[in-house]
Design a protein that fits this description.
heterodimer; A: alpha/beta; 4-stranded antiparallel β-sheet; globular; B: 459 residues; 5-stranded antiparallel β-sheet; 53% helix; 16% strand; rod-shaped
């Protein structure tokens, strides 16, 4: 495989956080041989220390850890204003969308046991996207029904009240808003929001759509974000 | 689930009882009617007897009154009566002499009778007869009779009345029984509805209430206690299921982690160009991960088997004997480890031999594998109280005091433990202690490492 480079022209650094030695050894080797510089941490506290000391370009983070768990790490990083891409590892292969790390602001998740190539591809895509500058055309405010999106200010206002969104949630919502009335497939959204130009085996779009709906419909606002079965999703102002 | 749990009206199930049952209300009405029938028949019968007797008494009184006049001059009275009497509905008098010969008589002749009151039937007409010798010349017997026809008519009339009253009372009793029975059985009906509305899903629900009727209250009490028992049983099952689900989730997690490592290693082996050293390193890791999966599965299997033991699996077990075997095997498996034994000569108890063997094996394995011990001492003694205490001392690196309780939990590994453990070895030791009614804990060891103590109370 070709070594990847970040915009700084160096090998990108990935921080791998897990409490299991065997997994650390194998995944570290896999990522290293795939062209990343890998640093490891064995618990959440060590991970936070490592982020501040080494400022890695991306995080691969296990959810289930002693001392400080994965969700805690994500929450702490986002609270500090750190937007480093985070892919969380979940051991639970459940259909429900309650993956704690994603709600706290992680960008993607993989269920153990995952395919290394899949992890590598996603890290690369997330890094590329950071390098390219996340949202290119900042066009000011977009309004869809009761929803207003201020792309420059990274704010979403519903019925005159600002709603709290994680970065990835905001990007998904603003992409849908820019294309309001247009049905976007899951693949297209993965490409536009996550930069995945490959067939990623994930339902991360559905998970984030679920989060957005919960936030958009919390105060009883009628549904704006619709599922078009077999096609994808569309943001549409109520008639 | 949804359909069944909805409150359904208390309709009887498809299978009907073998005999058609009547509603409680109908039974109450029927019982009331039956009671009324018995009561009215009894009262009617008594009143008919009373009327009969009353009629006779009346006739007797009339005769007594008449006799006062007649007995003054009976022969003249007969003459007068014979003249006056046009029908046979009036007083008849017959006078006889002492040997029964007829002296004189009205047209209707009374038979010869003993003194006193009698009822005789002449030409289908009943007569009440008073026969007497009172105030008469010697040998003269006077019999006076009056027909009872009127009295009999009156009696049967009265009997008809009584019967109609009985019929009426029966109908009325049934009707009233129906009306009031409905009210009386309402608590039962309410109770039935309440029980029917209980979803039986094990959630706390209001107890049923049968107040108003004692039987209904007792039934409500019985139903409530039954519901309570059902609820408790369901709660226990739910808790067991919850534990099983948790355990399954944790087990899945414990297996997914080494599998992830293995999958990653295999992918690296397959897709990347590696030199011989790298390949060798990966193969070693792969083997270790595979061993871990295997160890975890084996331990899970034993844990499950432990959960499934029952009292009949407990047999006479010689602790000293199994410790000897265990120590022997441990030295074979771990050549670096020397195991000494210090046990009472005889230590028989009721227990699970394979389980206790597993516990001692795991203790020695931990000493060698995770503690790095070279010396171990297994001792077993019976205390004055009858408790058998098995302890395994070692000279390994020990377990930090803060971790000594936690390491007995499933999938909790000590910070000093090596990477290859399943995290279940001490959980199995704790399980065996529990199965034998005892407990397991760690102490500092005089040998420098840690001491695992297993207490087995006398059984």
């Amino acid at each position: 495989m070709n070594p990847v480079t970040s915009e700084r022209g160096t090998t990108p650094t990935v921080l791998l956080v897990d409490d299991d030695e065997d997994l650390l050894a194998s995944v570290e080797r896999g990522l290293r041989l795939s062209g990343f510089r890998v640093v490891i941490a064995r618990d959440g506290a060590a991970a936070l220390r490592c982020v501040s000391e080494q400022s890695p370009d991306a995080l691969v983070l296990d959810m289930n850890m002693p001392v400080l768990d994965g969700a805690g790490v994500v929450t702490a990083l986002r609270a500090m204003g750190n937007d480093v891409p985070i892919c969380v590892l979940s051991a639970r292969n459940s259909v429900d969308d309650r993956i704690a790390g994603l709600e706290s602001g992680a960008d993607d998740y993989l269920v153990k046991p995952f395919v290394l190539a899949e992890l590598v591809a996603r890290i690369r895509a997330l890094l590329r996207r950071i390098d390219a500058g996340a949202v290119p055309a900042l066009t000011g405010a977009i309004a869809v029904g009761p929803l207003e999106i201020d792309e420059a200010g990274y704010r979403a206002v519903l019925n005159g009240r600002e709603i709290e969104l994680t970065k990835r949630e905001f990007e998904l919502l603003s992409t849908l808003a820019r294309n309001s009335g247009v049905v976007l497939s899951r693949e297209r959204l993965l490409e536009l929001v996550w930069g995945y130009d490959f067939a990623a085996d994930t339902n991360v779009v559905d998970v984030f759509v679920g989060y957005l709906r919960r936030k958009l419909e919390a105060d009883g606002t009628p549904r704006l974000l619709h599922t078009i079965r077999g096609v994808g999703f569309v943001l549409r102002a109520p008639k | 689930m949804s359909a069944e749990s909805l409150p359904t009206p208390p309709t009887p199930p498809a299978r009907r009882p073998h005999r058609r049952s009547f509603s409680l209300r109908t039974r109450v009405a029927a019982a009331a009617a039956l009671g009324a029938i018995i009561l009215t028949v009894l009262l009617g019968w008594l009143s008919v007897i009373a009327i009969n007797r009353n009629n006779l008494t009346q006739a007797d009184q009339e005769l007594t009154v008449a006799s006062r006049i007649i007995l003054m001059q009976p022969v003249i009275a007969v003459g007068v009566l014979s003249l006056v009497n046009s029908s046979n509905k009036d007083l008849v008098v017959t006078i006889r002499d002492s040997d029964g010969g007829l002296d004189s008589s009205t047209s209707v002749q009374l038979p010869q009778l003993d003194p006193g009151s009698h009822t005789v039937t002449l030409d289908d007409v009943p007569y009440r007869v008073l026969t007497t010798t009172e105030n008469q010349q010697l040998g003269r017997v006077v019999s006076m009779g009056i027909p009872l026809t009127d009295a009999y008519h009156a009696t049967s009339e009265q009997r008809r009345w009584v019967l109609s009253a009985a019929a009426l009372a029966m109908v009325a009793a049934a009707g009233l029984g129906w009306v009031f029975g409905g009210r009386a059985v309402r608590p039962i009906v309410d109770l039935t509805r309440q029980v029917g509305e209980h979803s039986g899903t094990g959630e706390a629900e209001a107890p049923v209430d049968g107040s108003g009727v004692r039987e209904a209250e007792q039934l409500a009490e019985a139903v409530n206690s039954l519901l309570e028992r059902v609820r408790r049983a369901q709660a226990e099952t739910a808790a067991a299921l919850e534990t099983a689900r948790d355990f399954a989730a944790v087990s899945a997690h414990e297996l997914r982690t080494p599998l992830t490592a293995m999958r990653t290693d295999l992918e690296v082996l397959r897709t990347l160009d590696l030199d011989a050293d790298q390949r060798a390193e990966i193969l070693v890791d792969l083997q270790r991960s595979e061993g871990r999966v295997e160890a975890t599965l084996a331990a899970l299997e034993r844990l499950a088997a432990g959960e499934l033991t029952n009292q009949s699996d407990h047999v006479e077990t010689d602790i000293a004997d199994l410790i000897d075997q265990s120590a022997h095997d441990a030295m074979r498996h771990f050549p670096a480890l020397t195991v000494r034994i210090d046990t009472d000569p005889e230590l028989i108890t009721r227990g699970l031999p394979t389980g206790l063997r597993l516990a001692v094996d795991n203790a020695l394995t931990n000493s060698s594998k995770h503690g790095g011990a070279t010396q171990a001492l297994v001792s077993a003694h019976r205390t004055a109280g009858g408790t058998i205490v098995i302890s395994v001392d070692d000279n390994g690196r020990g377990i930090p005091a803060a971790e000594r309780d936690a390491v007995f939990e499933r999938f909790i590994r000590g910070s000093q433990a090596t990477r290859s453990g399943s995290g279940l070895g001490l959980a199995l030791v704790a399980q065996q202690a529990h199965l034998h009614g005892g407990r397991a804990h760690f102490e500092d060891s005089a040998m420098g490492g840690v001491r695992l103590v297993l207490e087995l109370p006398q059984r």
